[in-house]
Design a protein that fits this description.
Layout: E1 8-12, H1 15-25, E2 29-31, E3 40-44, E4 50-56, E5 71-74, H2 78-88, E6 92-96, E7 103-108, E8 114-119
Parallel strand pairs: 1-4, 5-8
Antiparallel strand pairs: 2-3, 3-4, 6-7, 7-8
């Protein structure tokens, strides 16, 4: 029945800091978003599907993550991404997954959402 993940939605406390994080640091692109009657943005990777939706101007829920622990994205360019994180001062944890060898970079967005970036084992930090 389910054929894939469609998107995640986050409530952004600070619109500009959140957009800077996801577009400037992670490289997502702002794209088409229908008029939904409230402010927000849809962010895209390299494909035609928006992978992250954002709400602006809404109160952040008291229970930040609920039962969702994190969102994960497949990524490329580990060395360049790591350099951007180092230059930005955003804290992260980089580890190589036992067995599969996938490089995993974990961080938190400006709203406290945990984000995982997964890189091919052949990439070098």
């Amino acid at each position: 029945m389910i054929v894939g993940m469609n998107h995640f939605t986050i409530t952004a406390e600070d619109e500009q800091k959140t957009l800077d994080f996801y577009t400037g640091l992670l490289g997502l692109k702002i794209g088409h978003r229908p008029d939904l009657g409230f402010p927000g943005a849809w962010l895209y990777g390299t494909g035609p599907q928006a992978v992250l939706h954002m709400y602006f101007g809404r109160p952040v829920p008291a229970q930040r993550t609920g039962v969702i622990d994190h969102m994960a994205f497949t990524a490329q360019g580990l060395r360049e991404v790591k350099a951007r994180f180092d230059a930005s001062g955003v804290k992260y944890d980089l580890r190589q997954q036992a067995g599969a060898g996938t490089w995993q970079l974990f961080c938190h967005d400006p709203n406290g959402a945990k984000v995982e970036l997964d890189f091919d084992p052949s990439e070098q930090p």
